[in-house]
Amino acid sequence: MFMRQIADWCEQHSIQFDNYGTGSLIEDFEAKIASLLGFPTARFMPSGTLAQLAALKIWCDEADSPHFAMHPTSHLEIHEEHAYSNLYGLRGTLVGPKYSPLLAKDIKQIDENIAALLVELPIREAGGQLPSWEELNELKVTAKEKGLRLHLDGARLWEAQCFYERDFSEICAGFDSVYVSFYKGIGALSGAMLLGSEDFIAQAKLWQRRAGGTIFTLAPQVASAAMLFDESLAKQPAYRQRAQSLVKALSDIPQLRFLPKEPQVNMVHVYLPFSAEVATKLRDEIEAKYGFRLFNRIAVAEKGNPQESYFELTVGDNLMALSNTQVHEIFTHFVSAGLDYRELV
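and the corresponding structure tokens:
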């Protein structure tokens, strides 16, 4: 169905496929995002993994140092099999507390020769938390005072804008490079964009080719992103407001806790008083009964207590279609059944 929508959109707009990253479809979309985020130019790439590694490699080579810093829960550290070291020979230092945003004080404590700092906005593994506007600007200033290149992991930047209530270009100002995703938040097929100066993007294209990322056409990915972008972006404030109202509605279930206590974006981590195994079993029962899937991924709580687990609750169109009363009923059943099951085993 989704592929048919993309095909229809391409036909309606007389879209011609790009050829190895050239052509009006991809170049016009790159220009649109570059203008929105306040950069001279951009490059659409098959994945964020490829894009971010290229950025860090460029900045580390420029400084003649393979060393960069990132938050302990950075995607590069916990989800990419340490590609930055195994493929690119880079070394990462983890900076800041695990379950809160990076702050200027964390950067001031770095006493090593660091070429670049990777900053994620918002931090997914901390429940979508963000530094305040003042904290973000202090972080930028501190990083520049230390001579660091700043790279923004904006995988969920689209969701962060309504927290800051600033233009994207203002949020991105001070960053030397930015990566954004189009399947997260926008709902497109896989695909990412890397933004920076003309020289930076010229180097990024070279690293894209070296990494095998310059493929014959990215037209389906680009078309899906271009087709959905404006509409999806416009929904983000309503998603955030709904996440906040949901957490408020669910707060009378005492066995639940949330990180953060009030959602800053359309995401929050929900902590449960039973194991991931129990939660997964009940998730399938909930889906069969209510037609709603609570989560895909669940983990043991950060303190390592096997009898406590958590999952990421993200508000999108599916949750928008349910009332707070319906969601409260689902969670009440879920928690009650989980506690009963825990008592039996």
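(Above: one complete record from the training split.) DSSP finds 14 helices and eleven strands in the chain.
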